[in-house]
Amino acid sequence: MTGCGGGDTTGGESAGGDAPAFEVAKDVALTGSPTFDAIKSSGKIRIGVKEDQPGLGYLDAATGERTGFDIQIATWMAASLGVAADKIEFKAIPSANRETALANGDVDLYVGTYSINDKRKKLVDFAGPYFITGQGLLVAKDNTTITSEKDLDGKKVCSATGSTPFQNIKENFPKADPISFDIYSKCVEALTSGTVDTVTTDQAILLGFASQNPDKLKVVGEPFTVEKYGVGMKLGDTALRTFLNKTLTDGGATWTKIYDATLGLSGTKVEQPAVDQY
Ligand code: GLU
Fold first, then answer.
1. Cα separation of 107 and 15, whole Å?
2. 118 has a pLDDT exceeding 60
3. Are 176 and 157 in contact (CB under 8 A)?
4. Residue 11 in this model has a pLDDT that exceeds 70
5. For ligand 1, atom 8, which residue shows the shortest CA distance?
6. Which SS3 state, helix, strand or coil, does residue 165 take?
7. Is the shortest distance between the CB of 180 and ligand 1 below 6 Å?
C-alpha cells in the first residue's frame, strides 16, 4: 500500500490542544509480554479510559478531542511502547467493567482514575502509582449541612458502581443512603437537579466537576481515603508491568510536563509518587 500520502500526520490530534508531545520510542525491546506482541502485530493500542471526567479523562463531543491528565499519561505509555498518538484507540469503560475488559482483552491498557488495591490486584496488574488522591465530597454551592464525611447520615450519597468510594460508603457509612450510576457525570446531574445530596469519589475527579460549574458546585472537607492510580493491564503480564514502571520511574520530567499541562493548571503543585514494584 503505497501512495496514500498519510505518513506525515501531526499526531496527537486525539490527545488535546496544548498537550505535550511525546517522543515515540523506536525499536522497543520487550520480550515475554503477550499484550505487547498483540500491539506490535496490530500496529495499534487499545486503551480504556473515562470520558466524562473533566481534567482527567474527558471527551469533547463537539470536537472529538480527548483531554486530561489520564489521557496524557495513556498517550505517554503508548509512546514508550513505540505507538504514536494517532494509533491509539481509546475506549470508554466505566468503573465496574474495568477488570472484565482487561481480562477479556477488550483493551490493552486501562488509564482512568483506577485505584490500585489488593482485591483488584487478584484480577489485573498495575503499573504505578502515577498519581495519589483521596475520596472527597461534592455538594451544591449553597449546601451548608454537609461539610465533611461525618455529615452523611440520612443523606443520599451518589457514586459510581464498582468504585472504591462507593464500596467505602456501603461498608463504613451504614446510615448513609447510597445511590449509584455507572458513571460520575450522572451523579453530578442528580446533584445539580437536587435528587441526591452529595457525590463522592476521588477529590481529583470532583475538583474537575466543580471547576466546570463553579456557580453551582463545591468540594467540601478533606480527603478521607488514599487512592493510588495505576495503569491497569492483563493479570500476569509482568514484562509489560516492569516496562511501564520503568517508563514512569525514568520519566520524571515527562510526568511533570503532563501534570503542569493538565491538573496543575489549577495551581496545585504535587510531586510524582514513587513507583511500587510489587
Ligand atoms: N479511584 C476510584 C476507583 O478506582 C474511584 C474513581 C473511579 O471510579 O474510577 O474506584
1. 18
2. yes
3. yes
4. no
5. 163
6. helix
7. no
Q: DSSP label at 75?
A: H
Whether CATH 3.40.50.300 fits 135-220:
no
- Percent of the chain exceeding pLDDT 70 equals 93
- Cβ(201) to ligand 1 under 6 A? yes
Report if pTM > 0.90. yes
User: CATH topology of 9-133+228-266 equal to that of 135-220?
Assistant: yes
Where in the chain are the domains?
9-133+228-266, 135-220
- Alpha carbons 243 and 276: distance in angstroms, whole number: 13
Strands 217-220, 177-181: pairing is unpaired
Q: What's the average model confidence in pLDDT over 37-51?
A: 97
Superfamily of domain 9-133+228-266: Periplasmic binding protein-like II (3.40.190.10)
Phi, psi of 265 (to 5 degrees): -60, -20
Judge whether 73 and 79 are in contact, CB under 8 Å.
Answer: no
220 three-class SS? strand
Distances in whole angstroms, Cα of residue 55 to Cα of each of 33, 70, 121, 235, 270: 31, 8, 26, 28, 15
Structure-block grid coordinates of residue 133: 488522591
Indicate whether residue 227 lines ligand 1 (CB < 6 A): yes
Does residue 126 have its Cβ closer than 6 Å to ligand 1? no
Phi, psi (deg, nearest 5) at residue 61: -60, -30
Question: Per this entry, what is the length of the chain?
Answer: 278
Choice among 110-119, 135-144, 258-267 with the minimum mean pLDDT: 258-267
Average model confidence (pLDDT) for the chain?
93
